[in-house]
Specification:
By secondary structure, this protein is mainly α. The protein folds into two domains: 2-210, Cation efflux protein transmembrane domain (Alpha-lytic protease prodomain-like, Up-down Bundle); 218-298, Cation efflux protein, cytoplasmic domain (Alpha-Beta Plaits, 2-Layer Sandwich). It has helices at 2-33, 36-62, 76-110, 120-147, 150-177, 183-210, 218-226, 260-277, 293-298, and strands at 233-241, 246-254, 281-290. A three-stranded mixed β-sheet has the order 1-2-3. The longest helix is centred in the first third of the chain and has 35 residues, at 76-110.
Length: 310
């Protein structure tokens, strides 16, 4: 677990450096060129960096071992960081909408839009930062899946929204260059929609953890358990946790004439085997029940996959 936490922190520090570089470039040139859309995109990029900082703080808490007050560990702090990133995305969307609406209201009253300077440098800044963000999304998504990290995958979605934002800004620059100055704040509104959509995706991921949504397919688990020597039935299969740390409990039916010691030996071996079958499965609490009519009625036997058991 320590190695996983160290890996996530290393990725976050690397992404933080790239996000700061991208944000500074966009905000600086957005102010120089007076482009609302580019400046808004830069603010959005700063929220990427802020999200990295929040994630680093959360990972420090999440990497703590289980204790008396937190017997399941502190892994949900990682999901708290994901939710915080979602909140930051909403704040970024509000900032973009505010700037765009102000510009549109001013245009409606005066018929004049503040001049936006579009040069080759404007396009160069956006294309370079776009390339960096494409790399960040690819790298962070890959590492997030490899490390089973909710926060890395949420942050990758955050940066993916930045890519759509940047593409929108490029469109606005082309239109402004063609003489449609009002396109700048209008594109800013579309940018806000893209940011809100990214926030929704992040909140969905955090909701999976906070609502204790089933992490493992009960039918698949049932098939594996029934294929294990000594297991005659299985029910009450429940799993929860983060994307990387999963806890599961279940009840198994065994021959009622065997000793308690033999029944618990089957449960112990099954637990060890299941933890090797599912990536991220940290522990399994197994209740041993006798294979009688009452317990058998609780065990479901749907169409099961073929599973190779030891």
């Amino acid at each position: 677990m320590e190695q996983r936490a160290a890996g996530i922190k290393k990725v976050l520090w690397q992404i933080l450096a790239l996000n700061i570089l991208v944000a500074v470039g966009k905000v600086a040139w957005g102010m120089v060129s007076r482009s609302t859309a580019m400046f808004a995109d830069g603010i959005h990029s700063f929220t990427d960096g802020s999200g990295n900082v929040v994630a680093l703080i959360a990972m420090k808490a999440a990497s703590k071992p289980a204790d008396e007050d937190h017997p399941y560990g502190h892994h949900k702090y990682e999901s708290f960081a994901s939710a915080a990133i979602g909140v930051m995305l909403c704040l970024a969307a509000w900032k973009v909408v505010s700037g765009s609406v102000t510009a549109l209201v001013a245009y409606a009253r005066t018929g004049v839009h503040p001049p936006v300077e579009v040069t080759a440098t404007s396009f160069a800044v956006m294309l370079i930062t776009l390339g960096i963000n494409v790399f960040v999304v690819w790298f962070e998504t890959r590492q997030g899946k490899a490390l089973g990290s909710d926060v890395l995958q949420s942050d990758a979605k955050h940066t993916l929204s930045d890519i759509w934002v940047t593409l929108g800004v490029l469109v606005s620059l082309v239109l402004v260059k063609a003489g449609v100055a009002i396109a700048d704040p209008i594109v800013g509104l579309f940018v806000a929609v893209a940011i809100v959509w990214a926030a929704v995706q992040v909140f969905r991921g955090a909701h999976t953890t906070f609502s204790d949504q089933q992490r493992l397919d009960p039918v698949d688990v049932l098939g594996r358990a029934l294929a294990f020597p000594g297991v005659r039935g299985c029910h009450n299969i429940r799993s929860r946790g983060t994307g990387a740390i999963i806890h599961m409990d279940m009840s198994i039916l065994v021959d009622p004439v065997i000793t308690v010691e033999a029944g618990h030996a089957i449960a112990r071996d099954l637990e060890h085997w299941l933890c090797g079958q599912y990536e991220g499965l940290a522990d399994v609490v197994i209740h041993v029940e006798p294979d009688d009519e009452d317990q058998r009625s609780r065990s479901l036997h749907p169409a099961l996959p073929i599973v190779d058991a030891p």
